Amino acid sequence: MSDFTPTEMMTIAAARALTNDDVCFVGIGAPSAACNVARLTHAPDITLIYESGTVGTKPDVLPLSIGDGELCDTALFTVSVPEMFRYWLQGGRITTGFLGGAQIDKFANLNTTVVGPYDHPKVRLPGGGGAPEIASNCGQIFITMALSKRGFIEKLPFITSMGHGEGGNHRERLGMKTKGPTRVITDLCILEPDPITKELTVVSIHKGVTREQITENCGWTLKFADEVIETPVPTETELSVLRDINARTKKAHEAA
Ligand SMILES: CC(=O)SCCNC(=O)CCNC(=O)[C@H](O)C(C)(C)COP(=O)(O)OP(=O)(O)OC[C@H]1O[C@@H](n2cnc3c(N)ncnc32)[C@H](O)[C@@H]1OP(=O)(O)O
Ligand SMILES: O=C(O)/C=C/CC(=O)O
């Protein structure tokens, strides 16, 4: 097994969260890399769906956006965006949504809208897009983002996509029928919501990472589960699949 970067570990650990039977609504960016590594390794029959309506897509290179022709060219079929949302997503036909974000809080609520006050933003982010609907309508949500103090914060300035709200049974109280975020995969560790409080808790630590490093990079006092395992390191196959798709993507986008 060769050396690997924290980002590679994160992408591969995120890919492993998916199963062959999943129907997965894929977010652009880090989630898209993870979903395609899953498809190219342990989950060849996974159904990947992007918001542009592309169903069962098998991109050879990672898409720049949901509108990238690569998605439609390699899809089983493509439906209209209203059909994607109303029939597929709101119809409960999608098992898993995979999202990223700029900021997250301890109940896995996501901010992709604005950092700083809404009217006087420090950073204006891409916005919600389909993420709020994905977060509420997919059977469960996986989230992947690097652990950092600026990303993992105590109180979000803006909640774009609801995770577990104020914690506990908040989703249920609002009438939401889906599970919400069940796993957050970072470059240092994996977090899962506590079954009762729904507060994100460290369940797995990547090889070579210390508890201190994790604590130092989080904006709230992070809890650790009673049993914390070490994340299995990437296999040669996982690493070469990830590196190959990244290299193909870079070459394709440089040429475009
Ligand atoms: C189908 C779907 O895709 S769902 C549709 C909705 N879209 C999403 O949910 C997309 C979610 N993803 C995102 O918003 C983006 O990927 C981001 C903002 C999280 C990351 O953007 P990237 O360009 O990939 O990465 P990067 O980390 O370099 O951030 C770019 C800039 O955004 C800003 N930024 C990102 N995160 C933060 C943060 N937590 N605090 C302040 N600024 C931030 C910074 O200006 C940063 O530049 P810098 O690192 O030089 O300061
Ligand atoms: O509008 C959205 O929801 C998603 C946007 C992401 C993209 O344009 O690739």
UniProtKB/TrEMBL annotation:
Highest taxon of the lineage: Bacteria
Matching InterPro entries: CoA_trans_fam_I, NagB/RpiA_transferase-like
EC supergroup of this enzyme: transferase
Keyword set, alphabetical order: Transferase
Keyword match Aminoacyl-tRNA synthetase: no
Cited SUPFAM superfamilies: NagB/RpiA/CoA transferase-like
EC numbers, comma separated: 2.8.3.12
An MF annotation (GO) of this entry: glutaconate CoA-transferase activity
Protein name: Glutaconate CoA-transferase subunit B
